[in-house]
Design goal:
Layout (H helix, E strand, L loop, with lengths): L1 H4 L2 H15 L18 E4 L3 H12 L4 E4 L3 H20 L5 H9 L1 E4 L10 E4 L5 H14 L5 E4 L6 H5 L8 E6 L8 E6 L5 H13 L3 E5 L7 H18 L3 H11 L5 H8 L1 H13 L8 H7 L12 E2 L8 E2 L1 H14 L8 H21 L6 H12 L8 H8 L1 H14 L9 H8 L8
Parallel strand pairs: 1-2, 1-4, 2-3, 4-5, 5-6, 7-8
Antiparallel strand pairs: 6-7, 9-10
């Protein structure tokens, strides 16, 4: 018993247990901030995300109106929702009566006019700023005063989206994680003008639909994806330099993640990242070509096409290494003039996980996250960071911040790039002999 008491796992689990309760207290938001009543919800987009989000609300008896552009998209979305409920009924989790009751709470529609009376609208279309701004301008015209206008964007600027409306104080980010009806995290993103009442309301909504809500600031990728993109960049570079996707993934699953970086890309859909990169290229950013782009162009989009970084057998989610992808990577290395080298698991661990810690420290510095535990909870509930390790910032304290900082400095010299610029906060904590837990 004492051995268990003294284990790092016990410390990690207790930290994540109390952290989950602590995140509901938002810094600077008083307990008596008024909360708006959310009795009906509108959702734009009946795709995987929109459908999953709708299920969260009807599961707790809140009626939902889903708007799509085309009838067939609407029918397809509703059929998937029904199938999900029917599967739960087969497993004995729901009665057929409950299935029908929940389906009856969903109103399909092809017009924004049906959003006139809803208390909250969540937009769940793909990542394209022009489209999102167009949608929010329409919502601004249609929705009643006091309705909350939320975007499910995973990376885009909430303030820019809000600028399309005359009520930026009512605009907020509500970033659900895929599959939205299963994943527990709700990353609520405050814009610079989001009112306290709206912040308090979306945190209360999270609780009502049984999610763990974390309030974060507005920047590219917010907390979770901003750190994830740094890890993704390193994972790609490691493969370019000589590692295999399965070697990188194994290091992450050995640490306790349910899946590695590349298996996760396959689950989310390779086209999602590809679209984001294309958007950024159009905006004039210098995003280098990658072998992942080639996969997207060959229509290897991941699990949904049974082929992505890995291949998948019919009805199975188990990733199988694919020799075709190995050839594609080899070809890419040749084109780029890269001579592959042997890469150790330790280097993979440091470059994939320490880079996240360094970014997490920058996120804290900038006030995007109020506390290290906010980052920990985002990662435990949104990205499968093992709860028994307490989240990335808690784990970093256990690894030793001095160890992490010296590795960051080493990679700053050998790998380079802004992701390896040591965070000022990390340097300060090491110099003072303090930990993230002391903040």
């Amino acid at each position: 018993f004492m051995e268990c008491m003294e284990s790092p796992q016990r410390a990690g689990l207790i930290h994540s247990f109390f952290g989950e309760r602590e995140v509901s207290k938002v810094k600077g938001l008083s307990k008596d901030t008024p909360v708006r009543d959310v009795k009906s919800v509108g959702i734009i987009g009946a795709g995987t995300m929109g459908g999953g989000i709708a299920m969260n609300f009807v599961n707790v008896g809140i009626p939902v109106t889903i708007v799509e552009v085309k009838q067939e998209a609407l029918d397809k979305g509703l059929a998937i929702i029904r199938r999900n409920y029917e599967n739960s009924a087969k497993k004995g989790k729901l009665t057929q009566e409950q299935v029908e009751h929940r389906m009856a709470l969903i109103t399909p529609s092809l017009t924004y006019d049906d959003f006139r009376d809803v208390d909250l609208v969540i937009e769940a279309v793909f990542e394209n700023m022009a489209i999102k701004k167009e949608i929010f301008a329409k919502l601004d015209e249609v929705c009643k005063p006091g309705a909350i206008l939320a975007s499910n964007t995973s990376t885009l600027d909430i303030d820019e989206i809000a600028s399309a409306t005359k009520r930026p104080e009512d605009v907020v980010g509500m970033h659900f994680f895929s599959p939205a009806n299963v994943m527990k995290l709700l990353e609520n993103v405050r814009g610079s003008k989001t009112s306290d009442e709206v912040k308090a309301t979306v945190m209360a909504v999270a609780k009502k639909i049984k999610k763990v809500g974390v309030m974060v600031g507005n920047c590219y990728g917010f907390v979770g994806n901003r750190m994830l993109h740094k890890r993704g960049t390193e994972a790609m570079s490691l493969v370019d330099e000589g590692a295999t996707p399965q070697q990188v993934d194994k290091v992450l699953t050995d640490l306790g993640f349910p899946m590695g970086q590349f298996a996760m890309s396959d689950l989310a859909g390779i086209d999602v990242g590809y679209r984001i990169r294309e958007e950024r290229r159009k905006a004039g950013e210098d995003i280098p070509a990658s072998w992942m782009d080639k996969l997207a162009e060959q229509d290897r989009l991941g699990q949904k096409t049974q082929a992505g970084v890995y291949k998948y057998e019919e009805g199975s989610r188990k990733p199988i290494p694919d020799p075709e992808v190995e050839q594609l990577i080899e070809q890419f290395r040749k084109e780029q003039g890269i001579t592959p080298r042997e890469i150790t698991d330790q280097e993979i661990l440091e470059r994939c996980v320490y880079v996240m810690i360094n970014e997490g420290a920058k996120i804290l510095e900038e006030g995007i996250a109020d506390r290290p535990l906010d980052i920990d909870i985002v990662w435990i509930y949104g990205y499968g960071f093992p709860a028994y390790r307490g989240g990335p910032m808690f784990w970093a304290d256990q690894e030793g911040l001095d160890t992490i900082l010296s590795a960051v400095k080493k990679y700053q010299d050998t790998v380079g790039g802004e992701q390896w610029e040591p965070a000022a906060l990390l340097e300060k904590l090491v110099a003072e002999g303090r930990k993230f837990a002391d903040l």
